[in-house]
Amino acid sequence: MIDGLEPKWVDVGGVPTRYIEAGRGEPILLITGGNLGHRGTPSIIEAWERNIGDLSKYFRPIAVDKLGMGYTGNPKADDDYSMQAMVQHLADFIRVLNLERVHVVGQSRGAMAAVALAIHHPERVASCTIVNTSTLAPGIGLNEVANAGCPYPPGTEEAIRWSPIRGASEYSKEFLDKLIDVWRLPKYQESCRKMEDEGLKLRRFVPELAKLKIELLERIANKGIGRPTQVIWGANDPSATLDRGLSLFQLIAQREKDVDLTVINNAKHHPFREHPELFNALLRQSITSLSYPKHK
Amino acid sequence: MDQDIITVNGCKTRIIQAGSGPSDIVLIHAGAFSTGPVCHNALAWELNMPGLARSYRVSAFDLLGQGRTDQPSDGSDYTYDAVAAHAQATIDALGIRRAHIVAHDHGAITAVSLAFAQPELVASCTIVGSPTLTPSGDNIPNRLLDGPLEPRSSREGQRWAMDRQSFTTDHLDRGRFLDEAASIGASDGFRRAQAHFTNRQPQDISFERSLDKIKIQFFARIRDTGFPTPLLFLNGNQDPTFSTPNAAILSAGMDLWSPAAYARQMFTLVAPKQEFCQFKLVNQAGYWFFREKPEKFNQVISGYIEGVEGV
Predict the structure, then answer these.
(1) Fold exhibited by the domain B2-310
(2) pLDDT digits (tens, 9 = 90+) for A193-236
(3) I want to staple A134 with a disulfide (CB 3.0 to 4.6 A). Which of A195, A240, B189, B245 is the partner?
(4) Given an 8 Å threshold on Cβ–Cβ distance, is B310 in contact with A281?
(5) What is the ipTM of this complex?
């Protein structure tokens, strides 16, 4: 539980979907990383526990467990084990909550979802914040390298605790316990079985992800993102390295008038957890300074 | 914005202040005596002060030997050390005990001097577009301002230089800065500074040496013990005062001297020993980023200060 906030549930296209919200004002959609059915990286909206309370003083932050992730239900069809379906689920969530326009903030795999929302559903997106993402940045991610050599069998609690991308500083024992709670859920184990044992990851998820990445990077190179954008990058990320943050920023900067890059020192893959004061202040100032006419 | 002339250790000094608030921001303009293409002065910040003044007490002043501030009374004080000492005394005279320092280009030399001399005074340091503070390499010249429009210190001459340094240029005729710079360019003080540099003995390189000395001290400090305060390198992504065609040729086509490469390099040097070090690139902005996009600049400064103070 974050700051005493009870998680809420909503039906999104037949999928029970868990989210947390607080505050009033312009909605900010916080999107975590991770992809469904991955034995090593369950993810949950509690990742934003150091941001929601502070941001809720000025805005209405909303964090939602993505399709198949955290406590949200799994995709109903095998074909929906894809990033495209996760993006559609987020777009449907925005519609179900009747949010006119949201500021999307996405990290890691969540950053690809944020940019896909901005490009495919521009009418619902006011601004876009991209945080350390190998998934979206041009070039080759080093996740495999950074996570190579795990001394524990895949899928064990020890393996989940071990991930060097997460690092020791930002993932407390309490938080890792929450991840393990998710990992133990029957529905999560089922998604892992489908993705890894039945091969949906290699047959479906990864090829579709590659397709979406190419499409989004082409769109970015040709037209930018089309919404005010900021890139925030932890400088010491062993997976999404700083070079790739700079490449992504420069690619966006070719076409996007309003984009900036902030590099935060002593931060790895989760600058919003590692330096919440710096991160929250950046978001507050950038979102407050947008003077978009209210959408009708 | 309130303007005043105060006397600091016998030196008449122009100050501009605005706003109130629990935190102080001190803005330090660029330039060094009469050596540059533009007569820098505190009005450079005129488009930023009203916005920042809504949340902070903001102070700017003309540095020693520039703008409406006196020239050094002693010819041996045409140095960066004297500029920094005067800045420190001015901040003290204004009763400021702790401030976020924001410095443009050459002003960074004063800012880092202040942070070394009085770390308790400096809450944070923001270096805006400062080729002056980069490692000099073999001083490969940036040819951006070759063939200037003469006379250089006229309004037209200075406008020509600012135009070439900017990414967007509508700021050139906003506010009073250029008129003020032209008026300073025609002033007795500016002529005195020019005369000093024209007439000095060939062996007198005290000005250049003072820059070298402070930079070397800075590089040693960030490597060995760490910069004493939080530090932000803030750059316009298209600042043309960084990239030089020569450097591009010498480095086999790689854009090593771009603002992004500079910011990254400086960050890489500082980051190991200063936890609160950041760099920031803002797209479609040049050397005069804070005038080209004043609202954006103020947003960046506020976001940084708020974050540093929140820690």
Answers:
(1) Rossmann fold (3.40.50)
(2) 999 889 999 999 999 999 999 999 999 999 999 999 999 999 99
(3) A240
(4) yes
(5) 0.80
